[in-house]
Amino acid sequence: MHDPLSGTTATGGAGPSVTLVHACLRDGAGGSPTAVLEETGLGEAERRRIPTVLGTSHAVFVSVEADAPAHPGAGPVVSLRFFTAAGELPACGHGTIAAMAFLAERSGQVEYHAALRSGGRVVVGRAVRTGGQFNSSFDWGPVGIEEPEPDAHRPVLDALGVPPEMPAPGARVAELGRRRLLVPVATQHALQALTPDFDRLAEACDRLGLLGCYAYSPPSATGRLAARMFAPSIGVPEDIANANSSACLAALLADDGGTGVTVDMGDALGTPATVTASARLTEAGPVALVGGMSAIERVVSLP
């Protein structure tokens, strides 16, 4: 099997071919390693094992729906399924960005469009080849934002390491595929100093039906900020890049007149990543657009 970037041939057993994509690069480096492969007959346990075997947070299974009519103006319809070591997710932002890079590389086109089906939604994705990298974006549609019940999220904040005297005003529950808590932190230094108790955080999030907790620093005048996403309940104690939560934040800030954010993540893990997100207000609520740069690292064969 040929590696499209290095010119080498992947080695290993005769199992499925997996493309390793670094999604949401920052200045051409870092990014979240993501396993992308064609839909196979693997069972759930085998799908969950792939992220562990390859050292990625997620695995994305891609299937072009040959019998589906092309989506108007968006090319083929492609189904996506996302798995972590803990199970299947209805949606994954950086996994979708990685899948778009995979599809664009395979197509050979400079600009690739597809209608992406996952978690009951169909969204239009776009990937543009720039040298050896891909600039991918997609419109997630409406994002639900609500205020949490008074003090209901205090156990999450305690497990996150936010002191009781710091009430984190402005915390919101956002829903995009799954519900998550968005928590503003006073400074970027305080954000990087967070040391969550992951067992307690998973318990608190499970009790409230939350995917996890997305903590972020105040945006600069240009909309740049730092964020960290903690989701131990789904087997990802801290995510290198979380595009869906960044889209939720852009939707939240749109109510305050914000036009978009550039979110730096992964620094606490030594792997810098950047997500871009914007939102527009509609009658159905804020609608988010999210994107990032990706590069294909290599292709491997699973035994």
From TrEMBL:
UniProt cross-references to Pfam families, sorted A to Z: PhzC-PhzF (PF02567)
Asked whether the keyword Cell membrane is assigned, the reply is: no
Q: Does the keyword Isomerase apply?
A: yes
The record ties this protein, via InterPro entries, to: Phenazine_PhzF-like
Keywords, in A-Z order: Isomerase
Which family does the entry's similarity section mention?
Belongs to the PhzF family.
PANTHER family reported in the protein's UniProt record? BIOSYNTHESIS PROTEIN, PUTATIVE-RELATED, PHENAZINE BIOSYNTHESIS PROTEIN
Question: Mind telling me what this protein is named?
Answer: Epimerase
